[in-house]
Amino acid sequence: MTELLKSYEKITGKDVIDQLRQLSNHLKGMKVVHVNSTRIGGGVAEILTKLIPLQRELGIDSSWEVITGKQDFYQCTKRFHNALQGARVDMPESLLKEYEETNSKTAEKLRPVLEDADMVFIHDPQPAPLMNLCKDRKGKWIWRCHIDISHPYRQVWRYLKSFIEGYDASIFSTAGFARKLPHPQYIIPPSIDPLSEKNMEIPEDEIKKVYERFGIDPKRPTLLQVSRYDRFKDPVGVISAYKLAKTKTPSLQLVLAGGGASDDPEGEITYNEVVEAAANDRDIHVLLLPPDAHRTINALQRAADIVLQKSTKEGFGLVVTEAMWKGKPVIGGNTGGIRLQVINHHTGFLVSTPEGAALRIRYLLHHPEKIIDMGKKAREFVRDNFLITRTLREHLTLMVALIHENEDRIEFG
Amino acid sequence: MSHNNTNKPFSIKDCALVAIATGNKAQNLRELHTSIQTIDPGSIYYHFWGGLLRPRFDDPEYNNDFAAWARHGLHDFVLAERLSVIDPTDFKDTESLRQELLEIIEDRLDELHLIPWSKIDQQFYFIRSQIVVFDISHELKDPRELSIILPNLSVGSVFYHFIDARRRTPNNLNDFCAWLSGFGDKYKILCKELCAVDPYFITLTELRQQLALIFSRYFKGNKR
């Protein structure tokens, strides 16, 4: 076995890796191409960075292509992204023209590779039109949607749907995110990579240094929420919960760690609201971190006693998975994918208000043994269900299933 | 299970499931009832058994998705309790299981003045699955070998041979019993013990432990 698979075997156990190898026996030599819009940054690139080497180690000829364009292309796809999540956005003809032209140019370049592939995975809306532009395609085409499109802005969805309907299958993160389409819609929840900078084990010393850098006291109890400064993540609600809990535990500290969101005017407003709510309390640490601060976030998650994700609206919430993998109980908003991960009273608590969050914070601080118990359960729950090896297994299963024309039961041997 | 009979060795297999959205959903109890009437039997099977092979907490409050939704989506505790005691192993096929589900829901609809609704983001989504079964190139000739390999068998193999088998074998037997019965009465007691295992209220890991224990106890006590 190769080094990469061996390193995962240490975490997941031998049976998990053996199963991947058995499944991939039926896919050996198959040409698989993934297409997305960036190699660096963002969840999709993070997944592909590991998924492709793993598929290659299993004997699948997997490769990764990227669609790139001018500023108007990204303007257009950013608007798609917002519209698919329900925002009513203007979609000028000029942007749509740029979107289609960029896809045409990309198709010119990638056509030989894409038409020759046995399986093509197109990630999100950016490269969606490529399929119709590859007339002599021989393989199966799958549209992988990483976005919650359960309530899209209809005008934009109608436009995009025309590119997607012809695919052989699509993949959504949860059943609730899917739309009706005339092909099978697979459900594959996202996952984390336990060996990435964000999730790997790091030395105690490094964790201490991060706390020193931000002036956080390692001897006092600490709450943490890692998220963009976005109203739906309710950082102001987190501060309210902290303030309520602090009346009973005066030594309590709160760390809010998030990105700059410079391209998001609403983000700036929310950030200012957070700074205002945190004013005059030296125990609230509002951190603006660069997008590549993975090890810093890793350290903050490992050092925290309790992690919060008090969102009022959430897609899947991989940040919850990350905290659980580090053995932390999570107090999460009762919404979206958080519900799939935070099992009330087992891996954390689901809450709907700052008051509810404060109650659970107080409960956990008074029952430190529960913090340990829940944290252990949380880590095992992630190990069984939300690691990249599970995503890989489901991708392999889906590929085998698609080759066999969507039979309910495919039996080898 | 034609391939694992007396004359043939027991061929160990593994399986993996992948979930597919059917596009059907329900936001209230009436809609759930209507959909269950016509939904693909594979979806009913998935909502009772699929939880064993998909992201689910090891110690779930309810063992089938319908009961869990009645509790957490509709907040109907009475219905949740009634649905939660349905044990799919008591039913000879998915159609009779479907009938049981429908009757329990109909009774509840008759009792209620108002139809319970869920929030928009807590609807019930009907899912079905595809199963890929693969041979792991491991054949057993002697039942004693099962006691050695069982503790390390993948959970996919446990699911395939103990749970999925009930859909495939003529008498709804698990594969182990189906194979052992091919040896005549020799393993009658072992088969009886295996058939007594209730797989519905335990995880696959626990099921694997129980099966391993039964085999190991049996062969330690019967040194033959």
Overview of the structural elements:
The complex is a heterodimer of chains A (413) and B (224). Chain A is an alpha/beta fold and 413 residues long. Helices cover 47% and strands 15% of the residues of chain A. Chain A has 16 helices and 13 strands. Chain B has 224 residues and is of the alpha+beta class. In chain B, strands 1-2 form a two-stranded antiparallel sheet. The model of chain B has no long low-confidence stretch (mean pLDDT 88).
Give unreliable regions of chain A as ranges.
none
Q: CATH topology of the largest domain in chain A, which one?
A: Rossmann fold
> Approximately how much beta-strand content do the residues of chain B carry?
15-25%
H/E element order of chain B: EHHHHHEHHHHH
Total domain modules of chain A = 2
Number of strands of chain A: 13
- The assembly state of the depicted protein chains is heterodimer
Low-confidence stretches of chain B: none
- Based on helices, strands and strand pairing, what is the structural class of chain B? alpha+beta
Strand order of the largest sheet of chain A: 2-1-3-4-5-6
Looking at the overall shape, the CATH architecture of the largest domain in chain A is 3-Layer(aba) Sandwich
| Alpha-carbon Rg of chain A, integer | 22 Å
Secondary-structure element string of chain A = HHEHEHHEHEHEEHEHEHEHEHEHEHHHE
Mean of all residue-level pLDDT scores of chain B: 88
**What is the end-to-end distance of chain A?**
23 Å
What is the residue-mean pLDDT of chain A, rounded to a whole number? Answer: 93
Q: How many helical stretches of chain B?
A: 10
Features:
heterodimer; A: 413 residues; alpha/beta; Rossmann fold; 2 domains; B: alpha+beta; 10 helices
